[in-house]
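fyi for ur records
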Amino acid sequence: MKNNSHYLDALLQGNSKDIQILYEKNFPMVKKFILQNKGNHEDAEDIFQKALLQMVVRYQKEKFVIKTSFGAYLFTVCKNLWRRELNKSKKKVTNQEVKELKGEEHDFAMAILEQKRWELFTEKLALLSKNCKKILNLFFAKTPYDKIVVEMQYNTETVARQRVFKCKKKLKELITKDKRYNSLFEL
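which gave:
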């Protein structure tokens, strides 16, 4: 099994054999996600290409380390890019006013910034207690409080709400104390 930096190096060097393997292993899952979320085959190809390009550009600038599997990281980048695309299309409503669209470079920079924010978030989430991770994952999945009470074996919804609040507060503290926070969240 190849390590994560091997794939990044292969992309950087244009190693067609390894790139083909990347496509075969990872594109079907990305395509399935995009098809299930208002996209088509061409959208999936575009997003996959943008994700690879984004990763290569970032890797050239800073030799970052992928802490999950390469496929999981690539899929997350693709998901984030696709969500940005969907949000952009929502904002292109029928306004007759002429507006200057922001360039592809700005879009690309914002996507990298969002990815770095996501990495900081998941890194700090992993530092929480097992109980906090579980309750926050339920909360972020929009699980109703009555179901959280049952799942976590709490007595009342008030207890569940208090636990969610305390865990979110702890996560926020971990994130805001990180030296990367200011550069990633102040624009």
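Residues 128-187 form one domain. thats all i got for now
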